[in-house]
Amino acid sequence: MTVTDETRQALERQRTVDITTTGRRSGQPRRMEIWRYQASGRYWLTGSPGARDWYANVLTHPKFTLHLAGLDVQVRGRPVTDPDERALVLGEIVPTLDWAGSLESWIAGSPLVEIEFDGCVHRSGVRLARDGRVA
């Protein structure tokens, strides 16, 4: 199994993942559990509307670790602030959630981060492309 296959299979299998961000003020590692989503052929992190520490950390320190079934992948978070892009992505995610509330409230107030693999390095040392494939 290649790193690509292993990473992709873990992403497909696991909706709940752990991430380790760097604290925006402390500079210390902060590990937490979060749900990842797939929309528009890419992978995303989001949450219900409101302020989130993990999001503030990614805004300050975009590189973080994505922990997937024994795989630790260094990735970069791209915060999505453009209203049209937020509407497109969240328009795919929110309808799949029974408890989500209105799409409009998510577009207006939810954190939204694209998980970017481009140029990131898997723990095996292999460089990854944007979609998580071997570059």
The name of the CATH topology is: Pnp Oxidase, Chain A
Per CATH, the class reads Mainly Beta
* CATH architecture type: Roll
Rounded average pLDDT: 84
Write down the domain tally: 1
CATH superfamily: Electron Transport, Fmn-binding Protein, Chain A
User: What are the secondary-structure elements, in order, as H or E?
Assistant: HEEEHEEHHE
Helix content: 25-40%
**Which structural class do the helices and strands define?**
alpha+beta
Quickly count the helices.
Answer: 4
- Percentage of β-strand residues: 25-35%
Low-confidence segments, given as residue ranges, are: none
Please state the overall shape, judged from the principal axes of the Cα atoms: globular
Number of strands: 6
Alpha-carbon distance between the termini? 16 Å
Textual characterization of the structure:
It is built from 4 helices and 6 strands, in the order αβββαββααβ. It is of the alpha+beta class and 135 residues long. It has a single domain, classed as Electron Transport, Fmn-binding Protein, Chain A (Pnp Oxidase, Chain A, Roll). A 6-stranded antiparallel β-barrel has the order 1-2-3-6-5-4. Helix 3 packs across helix 4. The chain is globular. The model has no long low-confidence stretch (mean pLDDT 84). It holds the Pfam family F420H2_quin_red.
